[in-house]
Design a protein that fits this description.
By secondary structure, the chain is mainly alpha-helical. The chain has one domain. It contains three helices and no strands. The radius of gyration is 22 Å and the shape is elongated. It starts with a helix and ends with a helix.
């Protein structure tokens, strides 16, 4: 993969400034979309844990510390 990555980087260096800016925009959107999918998956897992009664809630700092220690 590192050879492919190196070749890609080398190809990008020969692109125009306009192409580089567009590529930057495409990559940023792709990263945002990927993060959204991660957040959505985490939300789904959390909702499933809530339905299964696996989630614990508290407003007490000491109880929260105990939950984290488990």
């Amino acid at each position: 993969m590192s050879e492919t990555f190196a070749a890609l980087v080398e190809s990008l260096r020969s692109c125009s400034t306009e192409e580089k800016v567009e590529l930057k925009s495409v990559l940023e959107r792709a990263l945002i979309d990927e993060r959204r999918r991660e957040i959505k998956a985490n939300g789904r897992r959390s909702m499933e844990e809530l339905k299964q009664g696996k989630l614990k809630f508290s407003r007490s700092i000491s109880e929260l510390k105990e939950f984290l220690a488990e």
